[in-house]
What does this fold into?
Amino acid sequence: KESQKINKLDSSQKIELKKLYRKLSKLIHPDVVDTQYKQQAQNLMAKLNELYRLNKLKEIENLYITIKNKT
It folds into this structure.
């Protein structure tokens, strides 16, 4: 499956990926959101973890922008 393919990243992209992952995790982790948002946060964390595993930097950047604009 093409969407399951792990992207190749250079070292600066890997650093950026990790930085964005950590920033997003702090915003959407189920342990830090209100009770009413826990299920949504769990779904977003699962999506983020999968994107991180596949080195999907662009998708994580887009998710970060979306989440940041909503907070």
Summary: The helical segments are 11-28, 38-53, 57-70. Residues 24 and 59 are 12 Å apart (CA to CA).
